[in-house]
Amino acid sequence: xxxxxxxxxxxxxxxxxxxxxxxxxxxxxxxxxxxxxxxxxxxxxxxxxxxxxxxxxxxxxxxxxxxxxxxxxxxxxxxxxxxxxxxxxxxxxxxxxxxxxxxxxxxxxxxxxxxxxxxxxxxxxxxxxxxxxxxxxxxxxxxxxxxxxxxxxxxxxxxxxxxxxxxxxxxxxxxxxxxxxxxxxxxxxxxxxxxxxxxxxxxxxxxxxxxxxxxxxxxxxx
Length: 222
Hints:
Elements: E1 4-8, E2 15-16, H1 18-32, H2 39-43, H3 50-58, H4 62-76, E3 85-86, H5 90-99, E4 102-111, H6 112-121, E5 130-134, H7 144-155, E6 164-168, H8 171-179, E7 183-187, H9 194-200, E8 204-206, H10 212-219
Parallel strand pairs: 1-4, 1-6, 4-5, 6-7, 7-8
Antiparallel strand pairs: 2-3
Pfam family, one: HAD_2
Organism: Latilactobacillus sakei subsp. sakei (strain 23K) (Lactobacillus sakei subsp. sakei)
Keywords: Hydrolase
């Protein structure tokens, strides 16, 4: 019997995915002759649904956006997804949470097959009851709220009967949790700012992974 379930975002929460995503974006931009972006601008792509950001930033229609996604994935699938670095203390944190009888799972806007490969590559699979992500077509299940709904259904959980919590580094993580009637803890060591997380309504914000060992159990309640 678990004492509650925690859903983790992936990029910017479990691992620093900046290198692989930026390399894939730069490949996409060069291949499709899209307007050049600064590194700071490219970092803002990390976290929110990629198709929405690409469509907005480059003013693309649906068909052109899908072509851009395919071009991005042409680099990301064989190489970029392995250009991830685990945040310091993450193994220790996940092991400690698991030892407290918490069920852990991933809920990410990244396509699910990519997320599963990354978790396996980082040797984190034993910590998680499931890895749930966006649909491969990047259209039918992309928004964080939809991914969380999907994850809860797959895990057989209800916000009305189970202590649940979301952890993430961007406002879409916090807002997606709220849409599912869940509280969310923000992490400031990822790609979002403390101001962004506070505005979205994070119940607490931590500055390093190991802080989650005590913060998450304290915030898990119906």
